[in-house]
Sequence to fold (98 residues):
Amino acid sequence: MIKNLPSISAVLFKSKQLANKEHPIMLRVCYNGQRKYKSIGLSCVSKDWNEKKEEVRSGHPQSVSFNSIIRREKRNADNVIISLFFCICNASFDKIII
Fold:
């Protein structure tokens, strides 16, 4: 039986402000009430961040490249999670059959 999968979202980490007055963009992974954050090496100011779409607004000069990096990082994290849960499910399934 597959348990709930972790959820992945891109967030603007407003509790940290960089020297250039921007905030880092991070991936947030939530699972069983726990949260972990991973920096993806990007940052922007609050007015350029769209929280609902989890992406940089089109008014930002590098919005196209930033948003493609954010999508790629989310996709990579999804692939890791799916492969880990697939391995766990296969291992337990094999034990049941034997």
Observations:
- The beta strands are 7-12, 23-31, 34-44, 49-50, 55-56.
